[in-house]
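Sequence in, structure out. Go.
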Amino acid sequence: MKRIAMTLACTLALGLGGGCDRQADNALVTFKGGALTSEDLHAHLESMKRKSQFRGKPELLTPEFVFDHALNMEMIIAKGLSENLHLDPRIRNMLHEQMSDLFLKIMEEKLVTPIDRESVTEEEMRRFYEENKDQYQEKSKYTLSAFPVAPDKAGEAAAALKGGALDFPAAAAKYALDEESRKNGGKTGTRTLRRFQPSWQPIVEQLQVGVVSGPTQLDGKMWVMRLERKTKPYQYSFEEKKAYIRNDILYGRYRDQWQQVYDGLKKQFEAKIDQPRLEAFYRQAKDPGVKGPDQDHEHGHDHDHNDKGGGAGKGTALATKGGGNQ
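Output:
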């Protein structure tokens, strides 16, 4: 059977306070809250045939085994529902994700119109490239060495490096607070500026190659650092990124289509937003220390550019805002 759609639909209904007492006229077995029909068992059989443990072994999938397996699965679901597991927000989220993915696959072709790749003209691509050149640039990469040091040793460590008494690996081995920095000589790797923590970005951006900097206080620690290498940015030409530019334009078109779909669905199903509660959620999500809208009651304390150009179509379905190349 694998009646995912039915099971999830029932779960949603139960979660909203309704019910799902599915008592089909052609049921082979009924139970509290549902039933199994021969159609369910045929669907379950087809699903089991695709599982690796049964592939090429049809003799294992006897009708009796399929029935027992399907009924046992239903009993587990019934037990979970009887214990209100579907009301747990985390479980509801997992169920709704599965339901959304399943329904989306079924309805996608009805909701959006496929876009012909060849409908994107050369002129449109060149215009898009000129308007979004920054997306098609390989940013400078920074190779940084750094280690945290005790405040009372920070000046001594920096002086030893600047005076040449110690090279960076030796200084890290002697003064670094953490074992990893002592072992690897303070190497932090190579990355673009945006891949550093936000508090580090303005500091790293101003470093000069080969010059020891610090001690500098960052994130509650004293740091000594040195920029080992910085690459120059590289601007890709239109021809180098032509295929990706086409993908990005297609992505934008699909994103716009999906936005129209969701706007229409919100109207169709009369979505009403409690703005004060939504704003409270936004504040709490940004700062977990902020109380949520229901936490005052008695018990309430409770992109670097993608070189593959981004997907077009399915990848935009649930991310109409903020998707694409950032």
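Check: The mean pLDDT is 83. The first strand starts at residue 27 and ends at 31.
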